[in-house]
Amino acid sequence: MHFGSGKNMKLPYYLGCLLREAIPGGWLRWRLGRVLARAQRRKDWDYIQQRVDYYCRLNEPVALPEDAPRLGEHTRKGMGSVYYFDTQEFIRWFDPMLRWRLFPGDVTFVPEVPGIVKSRPIGETMLVRFS
After folding, report:
1. What span, in angstroms and rounded, lies between the C-alpha atoms of 129 and 35?
2. Long-range own/partner contacts, residues 70-73 (CB < 8 A, 24 or more apart)
3. What is the model's pLDDT at position 131?
4. What confidence tens digit (pLDDT) does each residue in 30-47 have?
5. For 100-128, what is the mean pLDDT?
6. What is the number of helices (H) and of strands (E) in the chain?
7. Strand pairing class (128-129; 116-117)
């Protein structure tokens, strides 16, 4: 077992994920407004907002196609458990009826619709980076 490898140690990682899954999403959604209000009072809020603006370059709402899955439909099927748990940690804070696009793996193309990615091609894109 390498402690300095930069990778999560699997047992503690998965135990933490399973414990986090025990927290009801409804409770997180109930708290979201207060968590965001507290974040806006941070001394580094302007920097945080600059990073969000850098990664999310949408100037107006974009309607996703009807076949875009809903947050509540997110499953591990077709993706690794780490991608599932890493995204689930954050999407649980939002209405499960919202639609989204997730592009797991190394993204080497610019999708036609905005989506959540862990990596992205270099250049101007309309992607929201997730990490």
Report:
1. 21
2. 70/96, 70/97, 70/98, 70/99, 70/100, 71/95, 71/96, 71/97, 71/98, 71/99, 71/100, 72/96, 72/97
3. 44
4. 999 999 999 999 999 999
5. 75
6. 4, 3
7. parallel
Residue 88 has pLDDT above 90, yes or no: yes
For residues 2 and 53, the model is more confident at 53
Tokens linked to 76: 């591990």
Residue 41 has a pLDDT of: 98
Widest CA span in the chain: 47
Q: How far apart are CA 99 and CA 127, in angstroms?
A: 15
Residue 4: per-residue pLDDT: 55
Task: Tell me how far apart the alpha carbons of residues 116 and 87 are, in angstroms, rounded to a whole number.
Answer: 9
Reference 102, options 59, 61, 131; nearest CA is 131
Q: Which two tokens stand for residue 83?
A: 């991608």
Amino acid, res. 32: L
Residue 39, CA atoms < 13 Å, CB-side half-sphere: 11
pLDDT band at 49 (very low <50, low <70, confident <90, very high): very high
